[in-house]
Structures are given as structure tokens and as C-alpha cells.
Amino acid sequence: MGFWSRLVAGDPVVPALSEDHHAPQFAIDETSVPASFFGLPSYSSTVALAPRIDRRSALQVPAVKRARDLIATTLATLPIDLIGPDRLKVSSSLLEQPELGRPRSVTMAELYADLLFDQHAWWRVIGFDWRGFPARVQRVDPTCITIQPDKRVFVTSAGHYGQVTEWVPDSELIHFESPNEPLLVAGARAIRTALMLDDAARRYADGAPPLDYFTPADGVDPGDDEDIVGILDAWQAARQTRSTGYVPAALKYNLGGWNPEQLQLADARQHAVLEIARVAGVDAEDLGVSTTSRTYFNAFDRKQARIQDTLRGYMVSVEERLSMGDVTPRGYTAKTNLSDFLRSDDLTRFQAYALGLQVGAYADKNDVRDAEGKPPLEGDASVAPGALAASLASVAEIEKARTDQKPEAIRG
Record's InterPro entries (predicted)? Predict the structure, then answer.
């Protein structure tokens, strides 16, 4: 047993005596050094801080994989627009395809996954545009980053003769940071619990205890192996013929007390999934755990709730980093485009367009067609005030009829 193992276990650690046997002796135990010195309630505590878990092990838990997809993959599909000082969208090669030869969604999914699991994400700039701003990047694994006390950053990569560690100047790195704690640290205990419960269920599946069994009655000598096998075969054959059975006086029939649900540890595993959902910040029902009854809550409402409760922290942190002066010119901002993600049904969308035309948010029909992804109309695209008022009245009547038919509540 090593020094630290013996220390945590509470065993005294006594150095070896010198040759003259008169060297001073000391012991590190709870009396001489309290456990609080090491941040532990006691040397035998089972609630001490759980060490960080690696990403590969964590992703073996389906709940973690699902939480990662709900956050990283969803955000990766949302385009990020570069908005100029005149509030118009500007083309940006960095935001449209950060890495050469890789789809933008894949690069962004890795970025958001790094923020989720490690709290930090890194891009190494490998190309600049004519103004000197980043145009092409390469994702760097957070585990390959080493930050020295003097703030210098070293990157470890694979070379022709093994791993190579090199210093990279700040001008060639884009560092992203999440406002949330890393899931591999904050959720280490919950993830390990889920892994242990899955392993326990697997062991039960490989060698499940019998649901019932026979034992010799009091005062009866146990039979030999051949007799026992014959009795079990006869019992199984009889059960396939009829459900009623007869147990001889020489045998005692016992029930194991286990059922398949208990053998699979269903309740404990569901609770482990619920804990992972809490740590990841996602709705437990998105991970397959039913928790509460919901009032009326349609798909659009759930998307808005997911943005506010889960996605917004990651989304804003990336937007703000990409809007900094070392990435984009002064006066330009990066903004996530949520129009497709929050796209509502046709009726609600057209009602919003009509109101937008009325208040001036849309100048004419071509603005509406652009929002719908359609080419502009030729000629005059303005909307007559009378036609706009009539369309608003029609939309209001249809909306009222739909509201009257809407159920008061939908139970989840």
C-alpha cells in the first residue's frame, strides 16, 4: 500500500528508523493531522470529492450521450451571422466554414462539446484574411493544452518522432470559456454511479439469481447431483404442461424474492439519469425520465425553454468570444441565428409577418419572402394599408377559432 493510500485509509505512516535506532518517530493520523487539512470530513469518508472522469467513459452512459447531443449538436446546427455596424449581415469565411475540409456543423459540435465537458475550448488559427483577422482555424483538444504560470500556452501534438510540445503565441489561439462548470468534474459522481449501476445490471443479466429453488426438508438427506437434475427437469416439464405443481414432502419450495425489474435496478438507474440531467442542465424528460405533469406546453414553447434554461449560456459565450477585437473587426458582432430553430407553424408565422409589416419591422413583401427563403418579387412589393388591415383581421379570426379549440391541459 502506498503512502497516500495508507494516509486516506487512516493507517499511521511511520518512517523507518535509522541504523542507530534513536531517530525521532512520528505518525500521520487523525490526531496529529486532521482530515480537514486535506478537505475531507474524515479519513474514512465516502463523500469526498469525486475525481474527474474521462470523456470516453462518460459517453458510455446513454444519458450523457443524449445530453451532449441535445446541447452540442443542436447548437452546432444553428448558423452564426456576422453583423456589421450598419446592422446588415456580412460574409465571413471563419463563421461559414472554420476548418478546411470539414463541415461547419462538425467543427461547431466539437466546440460546444468541449465547453460542455471541459469548460474550455481552443481553436488554433492557421489562416488570416487580408485584414489580418482569423479566416481558418484548427480545433485543439483541451487535454493537449498546457498553460504555464507566466500565461504562455503550449500545445502538444503528434509528430513524426512522437509527441511534440510547442509554444503557440496568443495571436494564433482563440480560447473559448463556458460560464458553467465542466460536466466531467461536476457530474463525475453521478456518471460513475450510472456506470456502476449499468455494470451491476449486466452482472445480474449474465448470472441472474434463481426466481425459485428447492432445498431438502428438515431431516432429509440431500440427493446426489443426478437426482437433483432429474427433479428439476421433471419440474420444468410439468410447468410447461400445467401451472399447478406438487412438491414432495422431502423437498421445500422457496421463492427467491427477485423480479426482473429489481434485477435490472430500474429505479436506481432512473434516479442516476435524473441526476445527470440536473448536472447537465437539460430537461429530465428529454432523457426519458418522467418527472411531472405539464400544463399545455407545445413544441415551440419547449424550444424556447431549452434556449433559456440550457443553451443560452453556451451560445452567448461563443458569440461574445467571436465578437472580440482579435477575431472580428471593431463594430462587428457575431450573432446566433435562431430563426430556423424557432420556426413556428405557418399560421403563427404569417401572423407575425403581418404584424411586422404593420409596425415597420418588415419594409415590404420582399422582406417577408427573404425571411421565408424565397427570391424577391419583381416590380412593386409594397403592401396596401387596406389589404394589410384585412389580412390582420382574417388572421385574428383564425387564431381565435384555433384558441377556442385548444385543450386546457396536456398531461405528460
Answer: Phage/GTA_portal (IPR006944)
Count of Cβ atoms closer than 10 Å to residue 47 Cβ: 9
Phi, psi torsion values for 158, nearest 5 degrees: -85, 130
Joined together, the cell numbers standing for residue 107 give: 467543427
**Using DSSP, how many helices (H) and how many strands (E) does the chain show?**
16, 11
C-alpha distances in Å from residue 258, one per residue of 207, 244, 271: 13, 21, 20
Asked if 356 contacts 350 with a C-beta cutoff of 8 angstroms, the reply is: no
Buried b (16+ CB within 10 A) or exposed e, 311-337: bebbbebbeebbbeeebbeeebebbbe
CATH class of the 86-181 domain in this structure = alpha beta
Q: In a 10 Å sphere around its CB, with 0-12 CB exposed, 13-18 middle and 19+ buried, how is residue 195 labelled?
A: middle
Crossing angle of the two packed helices 266-280 and 188-206, in degrees rounded to 10: 160
The whole-angstrom distance between residue 296's C-alpha and the CA centroid of its chain comes to 26
d(CA 96, CA 103): 9
Provide the H-helix boundaries in 223-363. 225-241, 260-263, 266-280, 299-306, 312-322, 346-359
- At 173, is the secondary structure helix, strand, or coil? strand
CB contact at 8 A, 1 and 9 = yes
Domain ranges across the chain: 1-48, 86-181, 210-257, 344-412
pLDDT tens figures, 222-266 = 778 888 888 888 888 887 787 788 888 888 888 765 555 555 577
Give pLDDT tens digits for 324-380. Answer: 999 999 999 999 988 777 666 666 667 777 777 777 777 777 777 777 667 877 766
